[in-house]
């Protein structure tokens, strides 16, 4: 495991690299609004990706590196994320396809930046479809704008809602809530299978 700071327009971000034996792609994972990269679902997804031959970079947004818990505005999160993706794409992952992902707020960032960052796929853990109790404030359009294969792993009892599936978007429901810690082994299996399937055509 290697950790490095990455300059962004909104201050330094931090990336923690977990290397696979033979890197066939790279997965960038972002954290939730108030949490860090040690969340159980991020840890499980990292382990799954490495076992599937995918390098992983766990990305801490600049506000977290600076010691703040309140998240930055969406535009700042997106700008910082793209800066990290560009830097890592040159320094660590040159020539490899990039998969964007994250949990909760980090999943939203991954969706919003997938096109500009030229991601080949998007992994969403506990995508917050709407604030709890406010289904009218839907974030479904952020998912709808993603044009590459997408996997959403959601807890059946997640108060942030349940995303809709689509022709290029898989939704897998696991027991538990927004934390996704009730079935980390199920998450691990789901992510391993999905990465293997969506990366296989890129290796032909």
Automatic annotation (TrEMBL):
Q: Which InterPro entries match?
A: AB_hydrolase_fold, KANL3/Tex30_Abhydrolase, NSL3/Tex30
Q: Which domain of life is it from?
A: Bacteria
- Domain named KANL3/Tex30 alpha/beta hydrolase-like is located at 24-183
List where this protein forms a coiled coil. none
Pfam families (UniProt xref): Abhydrolase_11 (PF20408)
What is the protein name for this chain? KANL3/Tex30 alpha/beta hydrolase-like domain-containing protein
């Amino acid at each position: 495991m290697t950790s490095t700071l990455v300059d962004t327009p909104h201050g330094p971000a931090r990336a923690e690299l977990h290397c696979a034996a033979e890197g066939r792609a790279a997965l960038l994972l972002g954290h939730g609004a108030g949490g860090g990269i040690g969340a159980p679902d991020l840890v499980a997804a990292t382990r799954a990706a490495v076992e599937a031959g995918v390098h992983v970079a766990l990305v801490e947004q600049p506000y977290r590196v600076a010691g703040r818990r309140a998240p930055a505005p969406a535009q700042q999160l997106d700008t910082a994320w793209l800066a990290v993706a560009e830097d890592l794409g040159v320094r660590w992952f040159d020539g490899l396809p990039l998969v964007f992902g994250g949990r909760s707020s980090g999943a939203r960032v991954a969706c919003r930046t997938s096109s500009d960052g030229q991601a080949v796929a998007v992994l969403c853990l506990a995508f917050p479809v709407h604030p709890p109790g406010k289904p009218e404030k839907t974030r479904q359009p952020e998912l709808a704008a993603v044009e590459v294969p997408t996997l959403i792993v959601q807890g059946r009892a997640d108060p942030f809602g349940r995303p809709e599936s689509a022709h290029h978007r898989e939704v897998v429901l696991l027991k538990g809530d927004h934390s996704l810690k009730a079935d980390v082994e199920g998450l691990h299996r789901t992510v391993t299978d999905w990465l293997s399937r969506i990366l296989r055509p890129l290796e032909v």
